[in-house]
Amino acid sequence: MAVWAIGDIQGCNGAFQTLLKKINFNPENDRLWVAGDLVNRGEASLETLLYLHSIRDSVEIILGNHDITLIAAYYGIKKSNPSIDPILNSPRAEELIDWLRAQKFLHVDYSLGYCMAHAGISPEFDLGMALQHAKRVEEKLQGDEAKTWLKEMFKKGINRFNRDSSSLDIDRYIVSSFTRMRFCYGDHRLDFDQKGAPTDALREKGLKPWFECENRNDIDLKIIFGHWSTLGFHHDANVLGLDTGCLWGGELTAARIDVNEVEIVSIACQQAQKPDGVEPSRT
Asked: What is the CA radius of gyration of the chain?
């Protein structure tokens, strides 16, 4: 059995299927971890969801900001767009959305020594806190009041964790840190506006990637994340970043994580959209 982790697909099902063939993925024997952003902007978001749902017993899926926005569009909270319209208009829409709502914000595998969150884990959280807070918002998204709660998640919230904040502000911070985080300041405030790669100019302003933040709480497992196409592939002793910009004409990347030396396999993606610095689908 092989275990493969893969970065943001964002509806690029052609590249996704090509990559699965290249790594000889067999859902009867192998496991697939997907680091969120399954849909949106790519040419085949519905086909991507239908395939992942068909092999759901062999997949670990983490929710990304685009997946959250899809759920919000289903509830009428956010506007749809041509790439997710086929999902919302599908006769299986309710089934697929309910399945997405049941997915996690954080996946942990102690035996493999990895955990996975779409944007990463806040520098404020140790692993126990991260698991506790992930479960908290998972239960809200899966609950009977999910629509009302999710609408609140799209309002502006706090950029630093504060236990004395309102319950909704804490929820907003948890959801945003798991799905939208890239940069942080030395005092652990998160910046949700910067979307480019780390630069010297940003570092001079005190902005560093979240995984380089001073005094970040220790996470004993290596963190797999996506979300950051302008950062690209990043691998060090603590993190494994797998968003290599497939949607933007880059690559789709998979990493085999059940071996001593991580094996990396990438394929070129034919999508050629250009980032404009604005993410219309964000939480």
From this structure: 18
Residue 141 structural domain: 3-268
Q: What is the pLDDT of residues 105-160, one digit of tens each?
A: 999 999 999 999 999 999 999 999 999 999 999 999 999 999 999 999 999 989 99
Residue 25 lies in a domain: yes
Q: Is residue 227 in a domain?
A: yes
- Which region, left, alpha or beta, applies to residue 207 given φ > 0 means left and ψ of -120 to 50 means alpha? beta
91: exposed, middle or buried (C-beta count within 10 Å: 0-12, 13-18, 19+)? exposed
The span from the CA of 1 to the CA of 26, in Å, is: 9
In the chain, the amino acid numbered 161 is F
The count of domains in the chain is 1
Q: What CATH code is carried by the domain that includes residue 199?
A: 3.60.21.10
With tokens 């926005």, the residue in question is 69
Domain contains 215: yes
CA dist list (Å): 84 to 11, 37, 161, 214, 224: 9, 12, 32, 39, 26
Q: What's the rounded Cα separation, in Å, for the pair 283 and 276?
A: 18
Residue 281 lies in a domain: no
Q: Using one digit for the tens of pLDDT, what is the confidence trace for 36-83?
A: 999 998 889 999 999 999 999 999 999 999 999 999 999 999 999 999
